[in-house]
Amino acid sequence: MVCSTYNPKMIEMEKKKQQICILGSTGSIGTQALDVIGTQALDVIRQHSDRYEVYCLTANNSVEKLAQQAREFKPAAVVIGNEAHYETLQELLRDESDIKVYAGKEALEQIVSAEPIDMVLASMVGFSGLVPTINAIKAHKKICLANKETLVVAGELICSLAKENHVPILPVDSEHSAIFQSIVGDADNEITKILLTCSGGPFRKFSHEQLKTVTAADALKHPTWDMGAKITIDSASLMNKGFEVMEAKWLFGVPADRIQVLIHPQSIVHSAVEFIDGAVKAQLGVPDMRLPIQYAFSFPERLPLSGERLDLFKQQCLEFFEPDIEKFKCLALAYEAINKGGNMPCILNAANEVANAAFRRDECSFLGMADVIEKTMQQATFDNDPNLDIYLKTDAEARAIARSLISNAVAV
Q: What does pTM read for this prediction?
């Protein structure tokens, strides 16, 4: 059964132009990251300027790119998360007197509640996206969710708030959009299995011995998608796929033991759903994040979208493999966290963010990331019934433990 958050009857198309707030418009905390989310969302808006307007753009550090976007799209407001860039942003936009400039964490968390906003594209990466998304839900804004950590950390809380406030949450991840597209029209029919695909990353064919010496530069060579550093590393370790299993559980109401991960190197089948009668419905397409972004914006309508089209005559081979969870231990740890419940996924996420950053700084090995995460899960305080305050405390505690493990060279 699909989570009631996704009931199409809750989503009404407005006649007026939709006002959009993009959290992370320059990419996932910087230009190095998801151009496929922030800037490609702007391309969708650019193509459908008769339907959508930008109300607010936000970034953390990419002040020049934020200013460039603001000059083109003329939002009512911009927010730079890093307050050190506030004066620079003001100076860059000094000729744009109609654009209000804000800075800081609190501004990011508060701007989503602005009355004119119709929908919020939550594309900030990591734990930082949690509170702004919560505030947007409480303000009754439609959520287009690209920040998977929000549901990883606090899925039960987010779904509860969405139902309480009658707020639709539309997936922007290509896999979850594919699942959503596959169940439209079948929302009342029982799902027996979700088939969650992934490319397998750059190390799919590596041996355990080879994985001992891979570097961040090696891991950042994703075979299919153009993503940011943090997410690309998570994809290489398959932690990203573990996060997506958690996300699918909350979005679609399907327990984790009925969510199957498939390695699909061609990245053409974005995911599929098996129903109670054995029928399997899938969404196929070329790797282009603009499609799930636009579908989240326009649902239940499909709008024209320029770009490459899938040619099945050229795509001669579609392969599927079972992931090796012994070699890619992060995926197994994600399932362990799901099954444990409570604040364990929050612990997993915090430890992963620290280990991922350490790996990129060459302070932790590729295989060592899983060791740091596992030990943090063993040491952090478990709470079976967390609230937002517990999540915030858990995140801080787990990060401190993971940093200590890395600094003490427990898993380098």
A: 0.90
Polymer length in residues for the chain:
412
Query: What percentage of the chain carries pLDDT values higher than 70?
Result: 91
Averaged pLDDT, 186-211: 92
Find, among 386, 385, 354, 346, the residue nearest to 371 by Cα. 354
Question: What residue type is 90 in one-letter code?
Answer: Q
Of all residues in the chain, the percent with pLDDT exceeding 90 is 79
Identify the CA nearest to 332 among candidates 354, 348, 318.
348
Distance CA 181, CA 298 (A): 13
φ, ψ (nearest 5 deg) of residue 218: -65, -45
Which residue from 150, 99, 93, 98 is spatially nearest to 120, judged by alpha carbons?
A: 150
Query: What does the alpha-carbon distance between residue 368 and residue 358 come to, in Å, rounded to a whole number?
Result: 10
Give φ, ψ of 335 to 5 degrees: -65, -40
Q: Nearest-CA neighbor of 130 among 394, 401, 382?
A: 394
- For residue 236, what are the CA distances in angstroms to 30, 89, 153, 179, 223? 20, 35, 21, 22, 10
227 or 88: whose pLDDT is higher? 88
